[in-house]
Write a structure and sequence with these properties.
The chain has about 525 residues and is of the alpha+beta class. Helix content is about 30%, strand content about 20%.
């Protein structure tokens, strides 16, 4: 009888124990392979989520997108060009070796080394020197004030790697063979190119009070949207955060999944090439704006993929500097409502009152293509004939960054559907790339080819100021100009849709997810 009772108790315990009690595995579906196992090349939506688990920054962005210490105990701006960081003395790398100031200096110096070719090297353009000024003190001096420097060490540009491991790996560093050793909660185990990357729990994790529950973290490379959705349905992956908007309903119908939308720092825009006649005329651009029913496009095409755009090139997620001032400015900003008669009036005041023909470049994204078709139909009402040119993503980037020119040396398109996402939780992260620098050779991402010297001066001035109120006023003045000249139409502010298996909890994502996505807090659902 005792044996029977013991057997029944053991069986009951076995049935009640979660299937993943022995080893917790969490699988993430990526839409592409990573570039490298190296923070110097962590500058995309597939590489960063992996690198961020292995390495950590000197500072970080919290759930409210505010800067907080990480590998530093504290930091301060001593003056407009001097930043001092008190580095923690108790941090260990995943191989058990202590993180030293030599590792910190080595990691930062790599981004300034032309031989490394860091994708984030430009973030250090204003850096004059990086020096150890105490046993655990780091001082960075800038050549000029920079309002956005404060964010840099919270990106992959501030992540610390083991100097010894990097030098030992030599040319293999960052590859599947050479690997990567950092201070994060997970350790690199393997990388099967084009298939999957496997990380395991860091048994030497330094952060007191943090208990990492996931034993094995797997990133599966699944480029095809349908295959990635099917994998979520079949529980072959537990999480994915690059989801096609037109397939969200399929995922929402799955009882084992939670689907959420998270704000981003991003923007989808219609750029009008101001160097290409007749789009160089503001009346033509205003005619285009009034001729398109963007509210209908938002309601019928974009739907849950984003929030409707306004004349301001960023959503409320970037109201990070005195938010109440931005809310007031947004409330008073001009509105270009859908009005065909007004569009015709503006066109009548232009050099092409009877209309004209132009091109519209887009990539293979189905949502963007649907938006293009709607724009084409709306503009036909005012005799603007639009030829849609759908190109590959690589070709589109080449067009967007100014790599395709006419014989006259101007960008070879009339209009282009493009996107941008601020690198930092700072409003200037969208303003400067899109509206400044075209005449100075720094405007590669300025797809509208917009050039206004007064706007350039205002945007340079705001970036050189460390006074939040002054920065806002300078940006408001710049926006007053660009919202009247409208080289861009801000179609939508994209949201990031994510799906997570309900068997787990603790996963969270913010607008700064490129830099702070963290899987160490995931646990089995209660």
């Amino acid at each position: 009888m005792r044996r029977i009772i013991s057997f029944v108790i053991a069986l009951a315990l076995a049935l009640c124990t979660p299937a993943f009690a022995e080893e917790l595995v969490f699988t993430v579906g990526l839409d592409g392979d990573i570039v490298a196992l190296d923070p110097a090349y962590a500058y995309d939506f597939t590489t960063n989520p992996v690198i961020n688990q292995i390495c950590q920054g000197i500072v970080a962005f919290d759930e409210n997108n505010q800067i907080v210490p990480k590998l530093a105990e504290s930091w301060e701006a001593v003056d407009d060009t001097t930043y001092v960081y008190k580095i923690r003395s108790d941090v260990k790398f995943s191989d058990g070796s202590p993180m030293t100031m030599e590792d910190v200096l080595f990691s930062l110096a790599r981004h300034k080394d032309a031989a490394v070719g860091s994708y984030l090297g430009w973030m250090f353009d204003a850096v004059e020197s990086i020096e150890q000024t105490g046993d655990w003190e780091l001082t960075i001096k800038l050549t000029k004030p920079s309002a956005t420097w404060q964010y840099v060490l919270g990106t992959a540009a501030g992540q610390i790697i083991s100097k010894a491991a990097c030098e030992a790996a030599g040319d293999l560093f960052g590859t599947a063979e050479g690997g990567l050793i950092g201070t994060g909660p997970y350790v690199f185990e393997s990388w099967k190119s084009g298939q999957e990357i496997t990380l395991v729990k860091n048994q030497n994790y330094w952060e007191t009070g943090v208990e990492v529950a996931i034993d094995t973290l797997i990133f599966k490379v699944i480029p095809e949207d349908v295959t990635r959705i099917t994998a979520l349905q079949a529980k072959q992956v537990d999480c994915a955060f690059i989801l096609p908007a037109d397939m969200l309903d399929i995922l929402k119908a799955c009882d084992h999944l939670t689907v959420e939308a998270v704000e981003t720092f991003g923007l989808t825009y219609l750029a009008m090439n101001v160097y290409m006649a007749p789009l160089n005329e503001v009346n033509v651009r205003k005619a285009i704006y009034h001729a398109i029913d963007f509210e209908a496009i938002a309601a019928n095409i974009i739907k849950e993929a984003g929030q409707p755009g306004t004349v301001i090139p960023h959503s409320e997620s970037l109201y990070t500097i005195n938010p109440e001032e931005w809310e007031a400015y947004a409330a008073s900003a001009p509105v270009y409502e859908y009005n065909v008669e007004k569009a015709k009036e503006y066109l009548a005041e232009s050099s092409v009152p009877e209309g004209f023909s132009t091109t519209l470049i887009t990539n293979e994204d189905s949502l963007r293509y649907s938006i293009c078709l709607a724009i084409q139909e709306y503009l036909s009402q005012v005799n603007i004939n639009v030829e849609i040119l759908k190109v590959s993503s690589d070709e589109h980037t080449n067009y967007q960054m100014g790599g395709v020119l006419t014989a006259e040396g101007i960008r070879d398109y009339g209009m282009l559907i493009g996107g941008w996402e601020s690198d930092y939780p700072d409003i200037s992260g969208n303003l400067e790339p899109l509206y400044a620098g075209y005449n100075t050779g720094d405007g590669g991402c300025n797809a509208a080819c917009y050039a206004n010297e007064e706007v350039d001066v205002l945007l340079r001035a705001q970036n050189a100021s460390t006074d939040p109120a002054e920065r806002n006023q300078l940006m408001f003045q710049a926006l007053d100009i660009v919202t009247d000249e409208i080289p861009y139409i801000n179609i939508q502010y994209p949201v990031r849709n994510i799906a997570v298996n309900n068997a787990f909890e603790g996963f969270s994502m913010t607008a700064a997810w490129t830099w702070n996505l963290d899987f160490s807090k995931i646990t089995p659902a209660a």
